[in-house]
Amino acid sequence: MAANLIARSVHDLTAAAWFGGSLMGAVGLNGAAAAAKDPTERTRLSALGWKKWAPVQAGAIGLHFLAGLALVGDNKTRVSQQEGVGPLTVYKTAVTVLAAVVTLYSGILGGKVGAMAEQGSQGATEPHEGASKELKSAQRQLKILQWSIPALSGAVIVMGAQHGEMQRPANVLKGLKKK
């Protein structure tokens, strides 16, 4: 029971860090960086903030996957035998992997934008007219991805809550009888 409690806690806390850090970055960090007076500081400051957050986020994502594996292993009977648990586990895994890929790609784009900070910009994800095509492209993609990451990681949290509801004794009994 203690191992399951630890795995579940790590799983939930790391998803919360992923969601909250991404949302705060999009709203707070990028918003604050856009207010810098010097246009060359806008992308530089945003890139610096994201670079400092990246190891924490990567650790959270890695631990989230490990805790998820522990939970699936601990609940393998329910996953295979209780109606709805298996498919939800597959969907949640797919969304989690997609969120991780989007997060990684966002980090790569953020590095590109940071490297081109001397071009200046209107904001962390808003290029100015004179920016290179490469910078404009990276910023446009980041503008979408900065909202995709909290949406996807938020979906992971919601599916985790759904898994929790499916684990209530009455739902387990009903799900096992149906399958």
The helix-and-strand class reads mainly alpha
Please count the helical segments: 6
Average pLDDT confidence is: 92
Number of domains: 1
Share of helical residues: over 70%
Low-confidence stretches: none
- Please summarize the sheet with the most strands: none
How much of the residues is beta strand, in percent? under 5%
What is the terminal-to-terminal distance?
26 Å
Q: What is the H/E order?
A: HHHHHH
Give the strand tally. Answer: 0
Keywords: Membrane, Transmembrane, Transmembrane helix
Task: Explain the layout of strands and helices.
Layout: H1 2-34, H2 39-74, H3 76-81, H4 85-115, H5 133-166, H6 169-178
Keywords: Membrane, Transmembrane, Transmembrane helix
Transmembrane segments: 15-36, 56-73, 93-111
Keywords for this entry:
179 residues; transmembrane; membrane; single chain; 0% strand; mainly alpha; 84% helix; transmembrane helix
What do you see in this structure?
The chain crosses the membrane at residues 15-36, 56-73, 93-111. Keywords: Membrane, Transmembrane, Transmembrane helix. This protein has helices at residues 2-34, 39-74, 76-81, 85-115, 133-166, 169-178. With 179 residues, it is mainly α. The chain has one domain (2-178). Helix 2 (39-74) runs antiparallel to helix 4 (85-115). The longest helix has 36 residues, at 39-74.
Short description:
The protein has 179 residues and is mostly helical. The chain is built from six helices and no strands.
